[in-house]
Amino acid sequence: MTSPIRPSDIEANKHYLTLLSQSFPTVAEASTEVINLEAILHLPKGTEHFLADIHGESEAFQHILKNASGNIKRKVKELFGNDSRESEIQELCTLIYYPEQKLELIKASESDINDWYHVTIHKLVKVCRDVSSKYTRSKVRKSLDSDFCYIIEELLHERMDDSNKAAYVNVIVDTIISTGRADDFIIALSQVIQRLAIDQLHILGDIFDRGSGAHIILDTLRHYHSWDIQWGNHDILWMGACAGNPACICNVLRLSLRYANLATLEEGYGINLVPLATFAMETYGDDPCTEFIPKLLKGTMDGKNQLLTARMHKAISVLQFKEEARIFKRRPSWQMQSRCMLDLVDYERGICTIDGKEYAMNSCHFPTVDPACPDRLTAEEQALMDRLCHSFAVSEKLHKHIRAILTHGCMYAIYNSNLLFHASIPLNEDGTLKEVELYNGKRYKGLQLMKNIGLMIRSAFENDTECEERQYAIDYFLYLWCGKDSPLFDKSKMATFERYFLNDKETFKEEKGNYFKLRDNEAICDHILDEFGVKGSNRHIINGHVPVHASRGENPIKANGRLMVIDGGFSEAYHKETGIAGYTLVYHSRGFQLVQHEPFTSAKDAISRGTDIKSTTQIVEMSTHRMLVADTDKGEELRSQIADLKMLLYAYRHGIIKEK
Which residues contact 469 (CB under 8 A, 6 or more apart)? Predict the structure, then answer.
């Protein structure tokens, strides 16, 4: 029950109400908006989809958007399952997912295309009516193709079982077909269904690396109707490369070469790798670079290209170790000088000394390293580094994509009592929030740490940032990538050097931080949720970052349901490790469902053979009542708008503000 409006409220807010009156200049218009907003509060809550750690798997990602994690097929089965065969249901679903390509195949084989058009359009209208039922007409209208807006609206709101309108509806469909617009209409209708099936898309980090389609994913997201991202460590690495951090650039190149994925760099962003290839052949032409053979599927690269890739891989790795060491020494407060790995090598004996213990090197061929000053770049390395930095600096598409990530992203987000972040919140051993030093010795923890890291990241891209502070911010991308207390890493070390050059697997160990050790404790999760001000009895933390090993029986639902880890291994490189190919967490008006995906073959198979991603749905948490917009953050926002409009109505009716 709202408190009564008092004249003092109007006076205190008169300036704001005067501005509001420009949008609603009369009692009638303000009243209509109140009625509209009150009605919206009683609509079902829109469906949210949560994805994490996509890692460049663009085809699987796009297919999941197209099929709404299996939700569209479920609706089609509900509508037509009693009178359609499974093959017919699958064909209709494939048409919705890939309308342009599927239409071409159907037209080549269908004997009576006009009859097919007539039947199919009616079916698509029925599906569209179902997915649009929880939205206002205004919201649906905004989703419609401008060419067919009026026609689709008419078909959505007229029914064939109304004898007075049946002929009217049939004539509309017949005319669409007779005027040659059936294909365009089917494409438009399919795209509306896809769009309305997902109200809000949450990406919990790591769009980049491993897979070859990160740039395709970001092209898709830039034109997507509603999305947000919580930055992951791999996103931060690419953001650092875009900002001009040379160590981040080396890491980006190294990972691309490690997974034999150069498409994102060369085709996606126009990064010129010829200087690196030339340098690698000249410098490591007599080196087999065995440790640097890329991780790839057998038979996808011939021996000559594999060797060139391995030499490029080693060349950029050595450059990376040098560039990292220079930054670590420049930032002693990070306490990462122990990770200046080239300083720890005895080049004559082929020994690396870590924590006082000697380890034999499996290779000690470093033609560009001066033992007296291991992190000094040779003239040739510096020239190469300058060219690579320039290539990243002038990549217009990369800068557009990073700007989109900045615009839609942050370190954390809170939506409808769910706290979203990619990896961790730094904790002490006892589970209390850990203070972490940022710029100029200032220390932060929990909420303030995440907020201030977000501000620092943005300052690296702003020209009005003070020069020294901006350079620190650019350097800090490296700490976020591999620093012990980084909320995007949170491990004891990143053992890249050890994996390449040492045989003792004891040195490979990267001890996880306290968050990962304690996150199955419900009290710890509640403490973090309290810190971030997340309210509600059914509140949750939702994470990605660490793959869930489903094949070993690991449960993605932790801490008695307080925490959900949704990194199921989208990347092909993780499929053997996790046993699956990713998760989607779906939050609709009935509650939470976790959708577990099997590997996706290809869009080509989906179109020609009707294959779909096989998914298994697990009910995580169901609501005791169907959630409405009133139960969401949007509902709270709408109630605030209604209160403001009611104050404006009071001001109009009492002559405090004049109607226009």
Answer: 439, 459
**Coil, helix or strand at residue 585:** strand
State the pLDDT at residue 123. Answer: 92
| Residues paired with residue 583 on neighbouring β-strands, in sequence order | 596
The answer to whether the beta carbons of residues 45 and 589 sit under 8 Å apart is: yes
Q: Which residue has the tokens 């080509």?
A: 604
CA nearest 261: which of 63, 400, 56? 56
Whether 580 shows a pLDDT value over 70: the answer reads no
Rounded CA-CA distance 190/148 in Å is 12
Q: Is 8 exposed, middle or buried (0-12, 13-18, 19+ CB in 10 A)?
A: exposed
At 460, list the tokens: 């690296």
CA atoms within 13 A on the CB side of 120: 30
pLDDT of residue 268: 96
The CA distances from residue 522 to 329, 340, 432, 557, in Å, are: 40, 38, 14, 11
What are the tens digits of pLDDT across the range 350-392? 999 999 999 999 999 999 999 999 999 999 999 999 999 999 9
Listed in sequence order, the residues at least 6 apart from 214 whose beta carbon sits closer than 8 Å to its beta carbon are 55, 56, 58, 207, 208, 238, 264, 268
User: Rounded to whole angstroms, how far apart are CA atoms 659 and 27?
Assistant: 7
- Cα 531 to its chain centre, rounded Å, is 24
Give the distance, in angstroms, between the CA of residue 87 and the centroid of all CA atoms in the same chain.
Answer: 33
Cβ(433)–Cβ(448) under 8 Å? Answer: no
| Cα–Cα dist 76/520, whole Å | 38
Structure confidence at residue 577 as a pLDDT band (50, 70, 90): low
Burial of 163 (C-beta count, 10 Å sphere; 0-12/13-18/19+): exposed
What per-residue confidence (pLDDT) applies to 552?
78
The DSSP string of 313-368 is HHHHHHHHHHHHHHHHHH-GGG--GGG-GGGGEETTTTEEEETTEEEEBS----TT
**By three-state DSSP, how is residue 416 classified?**
coil
CA 637 to the chain's CA centroid = 25
pLDDT at res. 302? 77
Q: pLDDT tens for residues 184-210?
A: 999 999 999 999 999 999 999 999 998
Pairing between β-strand 351-354 and β-strand 418-421 as defined by DSSP bridges: unpaired
Label residue 658 exposed, middle or buried (CB < 10 Å: 0-12, 13-18, 19+): exposed
Residue 63 token pair: 């297919």
- How far is the CA of 87 from the CAs of 108, 314, 430, 617, 639, in angstroms? 18, 51, 56, 21, 47
Mean pLDDT for the chain overall: 91
3-state secondary structure at position 18: helix
Prediction pTM value: 0.92
pLDDT at 624: 81
